[in-house]
Amino acid sequence: MDFYEEIPFQALTYMVAQANYGGRVTDPQDRRAIETMLKDYYNQSMISEENHKLSPSGIYYVPSDGDRQDYIDFIEQKIPLNDKTEVFGLHDNADITSAINATDTILGTALSLQPRATSSSGKTQDEVLAETCQGIIQKLPPNLDYERA
Prior knowledge:
By secondary structure, the chain is mainly alpha-helical. The chain has six helices and no strands.
């Protein structure tokens, strides 16, 4: 039932980038970007190289052939619990930028909720904000012990 002597990577790339996603992605530049990214995954080295690397560090790679349990073990033991930015093609600084943006959003929201007038207790806005932050910190669960988990 083999229709091709070789795997038609170009046809697969076209089907996914243009036919499947192409109907949803209307910008030609974005479709070209999808096609370019797929070429990293739809190629002969994915199946011919043992443990083909999918990221620069080699943390993410194609597992060796195996049964279902081998793949489950691979995912549970080899793939990091928290994705590294490199898996998305981003620099490590993207993680820092994301954390800074999340912090700015949280603190901006906390500040926007503060009353504009002085409190009746005579506390400054900074003191009230500090108390609010301490209350939030006390309500947080303890840090997750990743090694133990």
